[in-house]
Amino acid sequence: MSMSKSPMVPAAQATPVQTSSARKASTRTALAQAASAQTGQFSAGATAPRAASAGDADDKADTAGIRMQHIDKTYPGSPSKALDDFNLDIKAGELVVLLGGSGCGKSTALRALAGLEDIQAGRIMVAGHDLTGVAANKRNMAMVFQAYSLFPHMTALQNIEFGLEVHGVAKAKRRTIAQEKLELVGLSDQAGKYTQQMSGGQQQRVALARALAVSPRVLLLDEPLSALDAKVRVQLRDEIRRIQLETGTTTLFVTHDQEEALAIADRIGVMNHGRIEQIDAPKTLYQRPASEYVATFIGLTNRLPGDCHDGRATVFGRQIELLAGSQTGEARTLLIRPEALTLSVDGAGGVGASYDSGVSGSVAADGAGVRARVEAVHFLGALVRVDTVVVSDEWQRWNDGNPLTVTVQLQENELPMGVHIGSKVIVTPRVIPALAV
Ligand SMILES: Nc1ncnc2c1ncn2[C@@H]1O[C@H](COP(=O)(O)OP(=O)(O)O)[C@@H](O)[C@H]1O
Ligand SMILES: [Mg+2]
């Protein structure tokens, strides 16, 4: 058997709603087949239950480190590679997020790991074993999709039990495991509820419980939160991380949402054109991006002019360190985070008189800084973001004749008194390393 290529449409929704007691044996086989596509667990299906897959102590004791090496994947008829020399190592117990825009190959990478996509080149190792040619149902991995893909005519408990049944787990054990997993996802009190009566967030918890019920060696999550509203998304994301840490399950999580990635990952791999452009801890990725793509994909960034030599740049009169991978030369573009800038009110030091004459703006106490005008002030609770436009003549031509806009982010209590739309300010870089491109 193989998983449905399109798990978005649960097959069971096409079957008539019926109670489990009324199910006939033939229906059961059909359901089991649908379940293999639905439960997100790669079992061998009803005809060949896999021995001792659930709670398999050996599998759990095994270190579940993953190594994907030099993977190439081209879909039939496609001119370009969906995976292009894709490489990824995941340590046992680690949660790695693949982050990237639509179509960059995230799902393909996850499905290749699951054994749901043929690959043209490369090798997949789990716990030191070569799984490259091994069928999906022999990989002991479980998956949760964006769509809840539960059986609507079964209760939460029955959905999980049925997943276990498909895996050949003895009847006596099913209920205990299912109840245990429902408790893990905080749904003990909903065990008897039909999943079609549950909210999206609850359904996704059931899907997660069902995936975890078979004690998979690897948990795969493909945009599991994308269909949920913002508040539930945040709650469930934190729950997934808590459970993942509690169970120690090696996990690959795919999302296009940078905030989600930053919040839950041990490491984030930023994908672009079928490969990982940079993989690092969230903080490193944010503070030390290795490329323009990564810097602009995660967080906000200003593009400011600077002269770059010998590992240092001069930006608006201030010297800062350059990150590895930076370009060098005159008039390069520095990628600078809004919080790596500060501002003061212009005129405080008696320089305001020259403001309208357009002299260049080396006017901060140490001679650094540029004159700007405030365009907007956004209060974000503890933080405040100030959009400014540079007014010094010196920089007017730099941005192809367009105004040079600079966004500054401060702690709310750092915002000088009297800064509002139209205020004249001096924007000054803080001494924080940046990437030159
Ligand atoms: N079944 C398929 N047949 C043909 N092309 C596909 C198929 N699935 C994905 N692709 C293409 O492969 C590329 C990567 O897709 P995918 O892995 O789904 O990206 P992501 O999950 O990052 O949005 C895209 O260009 C997409 O159009
Ligand atoms: Mg996808």
TrEMBL record:
PANTHER family for the chain: SPERMIDINE/PUTRESCINE IMPORT ATP-BINDING PROTEIN POTA, SPERMIDINE_PUTRESCINE IMPORT ATP-BINDING PROTEIN POTA
Pfam families: ABC_tran
Region (Disordered): 1-60
Keyword Zinc listed: no
Origin: domain of life: Bacteria
Keywords: ATP-binding, Nucleotide-binding, Transport
Bias (Polar residues): 15-42
Organism: Bifidobacterium tibiigranuli
EC number assigned by the record: 7.6.2.9
Compositionally biased spans, kind Low complexity: 43-55
ABC transporter domain residues: 66-298
UniProt-recorded name of the protein: ABC-type quaternary amine transporter
Statement: the UniProt record of this protein carries the keyword Transport: yes
SMART domains: AAA (SM00382)
